[in-house]
Design goal:
By secondary structure, the chain is mainly alpha-helical. The protein has helices at residues 3-14, 16-29, 34-48, 56-60, 67-76, 81-88, 121-125, 138-144, 149-162; strands spanning 89-91, 97-99. The protein has a two-stranded antiparallel sheet.
């Protein structure tokens, strides 16, 4: 991972208590323009962040897999869903399917995804800062700020936009 990306994650982690309070306050405020502001900040962040220079999301955290994800991945790997599940997945404490191990078994050494076209929905949507109804995604955005350098930038942008002057 690029050093500047590592530094963004380190800073977000150092500010975790501050950022958690900020997101809790933002949830209570529920600003009407939250989707537009977050989506704009997401676009700006990804002008600076190249996922293929990072892949921290694939290395350190895994998606929750739904049945349709398992079916799609099983087909991509030419396995039956039951075989795929047995080989790659486990059930976590919340009774969700997740990968047995991290990094993701489909993350290549060049940080490309070997099943990119068939990747799980959670991977397609990650880091969830380019969506609507951001009010419902503030907790995951807070957590992702310590995983994804782009979300760390989005968080700082949100703080600058919504902090009282």
């Amino acid at each position: 991972m690029k050093e500047e990306y590592k530094q963004l994650i380190v800073e977000a982690t150092k500010k975790s208590a501050e950022n958690k309070k900020f997101y809790e306050r933002l949830k209570k405020l529920s600003p009407r323009d939250l989707d537009q502001v977050t989506n704009r900040l997401d676009e700006e962040a990804f002008e600076k962040i190249d996922c293929l220079q990072c892949a921290n999301c694939c290395s350190g955290t895994g998606p929750l897999l739904k049945d349709k994800d398992i079916d799609r991945l099983a087909a991509a790997t030419k396995m039956r869903p039951s075989q795929f599940t047995e080989k790659y997945l486990r059930i976590d404490e919340d009774h969700d399917y997740v990968f047995q191990q991290l990094p993701c078994p489909f993350l290549c050494s060049d940080k490309y995804c070997s099943v990119y076209e068939s990747r799980p929905g959670a991977c397609r949507d990650y880091p969830h800062t380019q969506q609507n109804k951001m009010h419902n995604k503030l907790k995951i955005t807070y957590l992702n700020s310590m995983i994804c350098p782009a979300v760390a930038l989005v968080t700082e942008g949100l703080k600058a936009h919504y902090q009282p002057k």
